Amino acid sequence: MSSKDWLEKDFYTVLGVSKSASTDEIKKAYRKLARDLHPDRNPNNKEAEEKFKAASEAYDVLADDKKRKEYDEMRSLFGSGAFRRGAGRPGAGGQFDPSDLFGGFTGATAAGGAGADRRFGGTGFSDIFSSIFSGGAGAPAGRRGPQRGRDVETEVTLDFTQAVRGTTLPLSLRTPGACDTCQGNGAKPGTTPRSCPKCHGTGLISSNQGSFSFSEPCRDCQGSGSIVDEKCPECRGSGGVTKTRTINVRFPAGVADGQRIRLSGRGEPGDRGGPAGDLYVQVKVRPDELFGRSGDDLTLTVPITLAEAVLGTDLRVPTLDNPVTLRVPAGTPSGRKLRARGKGVARKEGQSGDLIVTVDVQIPSGVTSEARDALEKFAKLTPPAGRDRLEARLRKSD
Fold first, then answer.
1. Which amino acids does the record list as binding Zn(2+) 2 (predicted)?
2. Residues marked as binding for Zn(2+)?
């Protein structure tokens, strides 16, 4: 993405957020647009595809604190008129003075030294504007070099067991890629693009604007530096098409709901030989009807009867592997937790979490006459509950 793109495009408007939006608000807005505009949901819809690309481009800048700061500062400087004729210092005759850009920086700092680099997020003022201005001998002027491909984000839903144990799934993506028919040069097979005669293959046209020159992409070749006379019938001269590709993604054991997995180099292909972007996979995990999860531990609630709680019992419970038997001691209260070690989520170091079983003593809502007689007899034979302090307070109140 060129610096000129930053000046011409309002990324906040593209995502539909305010300039003061938080990172979470930006991420939420992008995900909604990405879902609505994704090529899978809008096949053969060029307008949706372009909006999807624009949203991804805006998100790539605004979601990165460093890039967002540089973007805001650049647009603020241009919006304030700092680069218009007549914006120079008094007595400058309306000419543009580069020293005005640095707010009083002098020496090496004003020339794009260490001080300027710190002010503009380590990029350096001369680097930010190198693709826009060329002002004298040695100033950079040429077509863009290799560009890194954009990152791609998608979402995958896993079953609970798949997330706990880990799994490998094929993932189909529809993303822009180089046309196989023309190998990305946009020309009909058997022909080759020719160098643009207007910009002489540089992709840029320079024009004098008073004391400095302004460079912009060549309109004849759209900044590519080459002209295609006979366009490729597959991509119609663009050099790129939307492709469906399938990759196998390994989800490690213990992947959690909401976790974001990064696959380096599996995003969109780079431009002009640049490296591919990254693929980010947002994981959603379906809840299980029995098991819950707390970190590396699995959780399970098991109902037991009043008699089992009083007398104790051997409780056979399921796990994600084979069932285990846990001993419920006599006199176990409701809510007590029992632990089956090593029956939880596998950890990276080879160990596993535990299965935590919570017993829930069930009190029957209705009993037979025989059961009632037995309970009354049981109540007479058991000591009363320890309510000494409570009864003492009641007597004091009376």
1. 196, 199, 218, 221
2. 179, 182, 196, 199, 218, 221, 232, 235
